[in-house]
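Two entries, shown back to back:
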Amino acid sequence: MQTASTYICERLCNKSIHEISLLLNIPLLTVSGIITKWKQLGTTATWPRSGKPRKMTERGQRMLKHSARRNRQLSTKSTAKDLQTSCGLQISTTTICRELHGMGFHG
């Protein structure tokens, strides 16, 4: 597998994107994307993430699913309190509703 630095080195040797693509047997859009990223950021590292990180961890999701299966009659408010005491996560009721909906729990 070729690294991104290979694409850039070829580009600096005055080869076109099409020539690099044929030479390395890599799709044209891949080569173009890497060179564009290098021109804009000065590096081929990953783009900065957009948006806020997720509040709910995988462990919290498992606990929420277990809690929802154990007692389906609990309100989201009491589920939020249960999660806060059991694993220390302070999560809003809206987030809990969204997560439960994503897991397939409705109503």
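entry 2 starts here
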Amino acid sequence: MRQARHPEPGEMVLTDVVAALGDPIRVGVVRVLADGRERGWGELRVPVAKSTLSHHLRVLRDAGVTRTRQEGTRCYVTLRREDLDSRFPGLLQALLAAAIADDVGNQVGLADRAT
């Protein structure tokens, strides 16, 4: 099974990170992951097909915004907050504040475990 490549903090490019954060679904994923917890892909509630979610998660990973870990057939994702904060100080905090203020990404959440 092929391991996903994650750019080192020094390899992160501002334009790639900003482009990755230019989609409301991806901003919503970042908002959900901002609590610092690792989430399984199946825990994410998004208004797109699984293949489209996979694409969005790959864009975030390739830009260095998230880290993906595979365990068997399951994939887990976390926000690379420390790496982003060290490489681009204040960027993530500003993005999250603006996203909350403008309600960007609100259509992304966590799946209800009761169902």
